[in-house]
């Protein structure tokens, strides 16, 4: 699933290649992907892309219509969605089906982008709104890790408020932290040498400081690594730079211990027992607990 660094990079691609361009076609190919009724996609015709940004894991494209109205195209790529930029879009209308095409936007110079989604679970969502706060997922977002207000004290407050909630779950709760998902929470917890199942309110002040530095550091490093890459190269760049996430069975790059996994119904997490759980192996079942 694209997380904060990938969405930051995709926004940068669009800022570089598309800001100032005028919309010629706006095609909601997969009708189920469009979650709003008004404004309609046709209202984007003739609008100019004024900015491209990110709100948590949401891509926020700001358009100015010929009448001066602001319209935001807000997209959540879900687990299997992606943005594909094309310098030359097909002249024919887009078709869904096996291609996974959910949305196509074409500018007057023929360039544009597709939003695609692989797999059978169609969760990619597109919203066309006058205010991003109209999107339910945006309205409930917590603080962004890159916000100046996200200090060590702010993180301490969030962890305290979470009580005995598991650390992994707190970090990936979008109403707590905007943009942090499964991969980068694994990476931050590994960097901070913390168990994913540690109670959120059990961390000492020193460990909170370490976690804050690890979280911000991991995210900033990922954004920097993705800088200048095209949309097509971002996935490979992300995978190549992960220390433990997605590397079950491989040696920990810090200590050499075998990276372990805890699998759930629809996702999994990875960690190093030697670095994060005092050598203890976490039970690999849905309701995981430390093995006695």
From TrEMBL:
Keyword Zinc listed? The answer is: yes
The answer to whether keyword Ligase applies is no
Q: Which InterPro entries match?
A: DNA_glyclase_Znf_dom_DNA_BS (IPR015887), FPG_cat (IPR012319), FPG_N (IPR035937), H2TH_FPG (IPR015886), Ribosomal_uS13-like_H2TH (IPR010979), Znf_DNA_glyclase/AP_lyase (IPR000214), Znf_FPG/IleRS (IPR010663)
Task: Give the catalytic activity.
Answer: 2'-deoxyribonucleotide-(2'-deoxyribose 5'-phosphate)-2'-deoxyribonucleotide-DNA = a 3'-end 2'-deoxyribonucleotide-(2,3-dehydro-2,3-deoxyribose 5'-phosphate)-DNA + a 5'-end 5'-phospho-2'-deoxyribonucleoside-DNA + H(+); Hydrolysis of DNA containing ring-opened 7-methylguanine residues, releasing 2,6-diamino-4-hydroxy-5-(N-methyl)formamidopyrimidine
- Annotated Formamidopyrimidine-DNA glycosylase catalytic domain ranges read 2-114
Q: Name one GO biological process term.
A: base-excision repair
Q: What UniProt keywords apply to this chain's record, in alphabetical order?
A: DNA damage, DNA repair, DNA-binding, Glycosidase, Hydrolase, Lyase, Metal-binding, Multifunctional enzyme, Zinc, Zinc-finger
Domain of life per record: Bacteria
Cofactor(s) in the UniProt record = Zn(2+)
Q: Which SUPFAM superfamilies match?
A: Glucocorticoid receptor-like (DNA-binding domain), N-terminal domain of MutM-like DNA repair proteins, S13-like H2TH domain
A Pfam family annotated for this UniProt entry: H2TH
Q: What SMART domains does the entry give?
A: Fapy_DNA_glyco, H2TH
- FPG-type domain segment(s): 243-277
Gene Ontology molecular function: 8-oxo-7,8-dihydroguanine DNA N-glycosylase activity; class I DNA-(apurinic or apyrimidinic site) endonuclease activity; damaged DNA binding; zinc ion binding
Q: Which family does it belong to?
A: Belongs to the FPG family.
Question: What is the name of this protein?
Answer: Fpg/Nei family DNA glycosylase
Q: Which organism is it from?
A: Frankia nepalensis
């Amino acid at each position: 699933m694209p997380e904060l660094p990938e969405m930051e990079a995709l926004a940068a691609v669009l800022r570089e290649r598309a800001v100032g361009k005028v919309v010629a076609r706006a095609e909601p190919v997969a009708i189920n992907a469009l979650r709003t009724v008004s404004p309609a996609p046709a209202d984007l015709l003739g609008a100019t892309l004024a900015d491209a940004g990110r709100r948590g894991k949401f891509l926020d494209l700001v358009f100015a219509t010929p009448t001066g109205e602001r319209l935001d195209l807000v997209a959540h790529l879900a687990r299997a969605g992606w943005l594909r930029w094309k310098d030359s879009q097909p002249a024919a209308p887009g078709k869904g089906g096996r291609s996974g095409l959910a949305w196509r936007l074409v500018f007057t110079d023929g360039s544009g982008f597709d939003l695609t989604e692989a797999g059978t679970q169609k969760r990619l969502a597109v919203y066309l709104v006058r205010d991003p706060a109209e999107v339910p997922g945006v309205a409930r977002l917590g603080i962004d890790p890159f916000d100046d207000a996200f200090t060590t004290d702010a993180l301490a407050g969030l962890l305290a408020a979470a009580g005995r909630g598991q650390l992994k779950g707190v970090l990936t709760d979008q109403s707590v932290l905007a943009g942090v998902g499964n991969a980068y929470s694994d990476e931050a917890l590994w960097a901070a040498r913390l168990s994913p199942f540690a109670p959120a309110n059990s961390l000492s002040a020193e460990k909170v400081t370490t976690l804050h530095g690890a979280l911000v550091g991991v995210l900033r490093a990922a954004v920097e690594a993705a800088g200048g890459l095209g949309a097509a190269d971002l996935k490979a760049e992300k995978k190549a730079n992960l220390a433990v996430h997605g590397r079950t069975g491989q040696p920990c790059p810090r200590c050499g211990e075998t990276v372990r996994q805890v699998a759930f119904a629809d996702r999994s997490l990875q960690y190093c027992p030697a670095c994060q759980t005092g050598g203890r192996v976490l039970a690999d079942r849905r309701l995981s607990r430390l093995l006695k």
